[in-house]
Design a protein that fits this description.
This protein is of the alpha/beta class. It is built from 10 helices and 11 strands. It has one domain: ComB-like (putative 2-phosphosulfolactate phosphatase, Alpha-Beta Complex). A hairpin with a 2-residue loop joins strand 4 and strand 5.
């Protein structure tokens, strides 16, 4: 297995023009999109439909009138949408579809449309993601850190490093080595490290510290979040690690 890591939105923007057909992409937007999607699926939402723009979300809503509209811009719920991007908002949609657009996370997921397999991941379901990747014998894993606006996000890099460490692959790109080492350096004080970052500070200052704590609960949900067509759905159950 070979692991590469994409660190910035500028690099993400190049993915649609690349041949990803032999790759497994794993997208991290720890604070908070992928964490919210995993939470929704763990609470039996039928599917999450990631789209890039508000206009796309509203158009899809026209064809799926019973779907929940969720998403954010600059961290805040979009006007007229049912929910924002806090994982605590995503526990009550059993059996329902959720349409979501976020500043970075859904853009990153859409950039991976050409991949053979795409997974939405976070600390919440890291072992389930590892189990799925091992079960499908993925030859090349490309970890995609969604970032914040145009910048690298520390917490996504930490999650990427945790995945690299957990997979134990023999062939790593330089960014994969760097993120693994970043994670190993901070893993014993994960919450302290992430709450000191740009996104962590903004959420804590805005009264959303609970979202950070929620996102950092390792393996709370044994759920792989797998792309199926245009939707993210709950993947097949795997044996625990």
């Amino acid at each position: 297995m070979r692991i590469e890591v994409v660190l910035t939105p500028a690099d993400i923007a190049t993915l649609p023009s690349r041949d990803l057909s032999g790759e497994t992409c794993v997208v991290f937007d720890v604070l908070r999109a992928t964490t919210s999607f995993i939470t929704a699926l763990a609470h039996n939402a039928r599917a999450v439909w990631p789209v890039e723009s508000i206009g796309e979300a509203l158009a899809l809503k026209q064809s799926m009138p019973d779907a929940v509209l969720g998403g954010e811009r600059s961290g805040d719920r979009i006007d007229g949408f049912d929910v924002g991007n806090s994982p605590a908002e995503y526990t009550g949609f059993a059996g329902r579809d959720i349409i979501s657009t976020t500043t970075n996370g859904t853009v990153a997921l859409q950039a991976c449309r050409g991949a053979a397999v795409t997974l939405a991941s976070g600390f919440l379901n890291l072992d389930a993601t590892i189990a799925h990747i091992r079960a499908i014998h993925a030859p090349l894993v490309r970890i995609v850190c969604a970032g914040t606006f145009e910048d690298f996000a520390f917490e996504d890099g930490m999650a990427a490093g945790a995945l690299v460490d957990g997979l134990g692959a023999s062939s790593l790109g330089d960014a994969a080595v760097a993120m693994r080492d970043l994670y190993l350096h901070h893993r014993d004080k994960l919450a302290e490290a992430i709450k000191s970052t740009g996104n962590g500070r903004v959420l804590v200052a805005g009264g959303r510290e609970r979202d950070v704590d929620w996102a950092l609960r390792r393996d709370l949900y044994p759920v792989a979040a797998l792309r199926n067509g245009g939707a993210i759905v709950r993947g097949p159950d795997r044996e625990p690690l």
